[in-house]
Every structure is written in structure tokens, then in C-alpha cells.
Design goal:
- It contains seven helices and eight strands; from the N terminus they run E-H-H-E-E-H-H-E-H-E-H-E-E-H-E.
- The protein is α+β, with helices and mostly antiparallel strands and 182 residues long.
- Strands 7-6-4-3-2-1-5-8 form an eight-stranded mixed beta sheet, with helices on both faces.
- It is globular and about 50 Å long.
- It starts with a strand and ends with a strand.
């Protein structure tokens, strides 16, 4: 018997300065602007994502600039379902936020282990003391000691579409092997 886990993601509206001042997008979260990937254990009802913890972001003056300069921040696992719902709603006018899902099949033992890892990571406030960083602009694979939202599912033992974590490459591969969410 195999059990299904969903890998879910969207590309995001980007950080274009024109969009940044567009009233339709100015108040969107950083995850909506950057794009996001998560994992669902219940058919897409709840989607867990990995990103910098609020405490880590508060410790630096400008989190995005720090990450763009190659810095790494302590990451955590969070229920990001609302982010995916917002991206889905925005996709009506902004196709870049179309949310895609791909089914990954695992054994019942793997499913239980993954569910326990996610629960433990949420309770501890971090994912196995993992570090979050932005992907390399050169398209180099994400180093094993760091992850972004797109590469952290590998820490759970799940296969991912590509290993750089660059959403402009990752999301088309996710869409190619998947279907629109929900």
C-alpha cells in the first residue's frame, strides 16, 4: 500500500519595483512575491512550508537583502496554507501564482516518519536546526546544510524536481509532472 504526499508550489509575483508600488500587490507578503513550495499530508487541506523564522528575520536589518547577499537564517516549518490560498486567488489575474501540485507516493512507514518530522519541526520551531538561504544566482545546487522552501522536502526523504531551489526552474518541472491545485 502506498500513501500520497503532495508537493505544492507557485512561482510568485516577483519583486519588480513597478509591482512593488502597484496598489494591487504592494501589501502582499514576501512569500507571495518570492513564490513558495510546501508539502501536504492531507490532500492539500494543510500545506507546510519552510522559511526563515520570524525571530531570525527580526535579528537582521533587512532579511531579503541579507539573504540576497548569500546569508543564511535559521529556518522553520509552518502551516502556510493561507499563502497558497492567496496565491491561488491571485492566479485569476496573475498566472505566475498558479499553484501546482505533484503527488509523491511513499510507504505507510515513510508517511508516518515524515508526519512525525513535520510535527517535531513545528514544535521545536525549526527543521532539524536547518538553515534557510536563497538559491545561487548561478544555478548551483543548494548545499546540503542549507535549504529553501523548494529544497527542504529532500530533508524529509522526498524527491524534488530539481536541486538548485530556483523557482523559475523548479515550478515548471512541478507543473510538468503535476496538476493545478486545488
Amino acid at each position: 500500500m502506498r500513501m500520497a504526499i503532495l508537493l505544492v508550489g507557485f512561482r510568485g509575483i516577483g519583486f519588480n519595483p513597478i509591482r512593488y508600488t502597484d496598489p494591487a500587490y504592494v501589501y502582499e507578503s514576501e512569500l507571495i512575491k518570492a513564490g513558495h513550495v510546501g508539502v501536504s499530508l492531507d490532500g492539500g487541506q494543510t500545506i507546510y512550508g519552510f522559511h526563515p523564522s520570524p525571530e531570525a528575520l527580526a535579528a537582521v536589518a533587512n532579511g531579503r537583502a541579507f539573504l540576497q547577499e548569500g546569508g543564511a537564517l535559521r529556518g522553520g516549518v509552518y502551516d502556510d496554507t493561507e499563502m497558497f490560498r492567496r496565491a491561488h486567488a491571485l492566479a485569476q489575474d496573475e498566472p505566475r501564482t498558479t499553484v501546482w501540485q505533484q503527488v509523491l507516493y511513499v510507504t505507510p512507514e515513510q508517511f508516518t516518519r515524515i508526519a512525525e518530522q513535520i510535527t517535531a519541526a513545528q514544535a521545536a520551531g525549526s527543521m532539524l536546526d536547518a538553515w534557510y538561504r536563497f538559491p545561487s544566482p548561478d544555478g548551483v545546487a543548494m548545499p546540503s546544510q542549507c535549504n529553501n522552501c523548494a529544497t527542504w522536502p529532500r530533508m524529509l526523504g522526498l524527491s524534488i524536481p530539481e536541486d538548485t531551489g530556483r523557482l523559475r526552474d523548479y515550478i515548471p518541472l512541478l507543473a510538468q509532472g503535476g496538476t493545478p491545485w486545488p
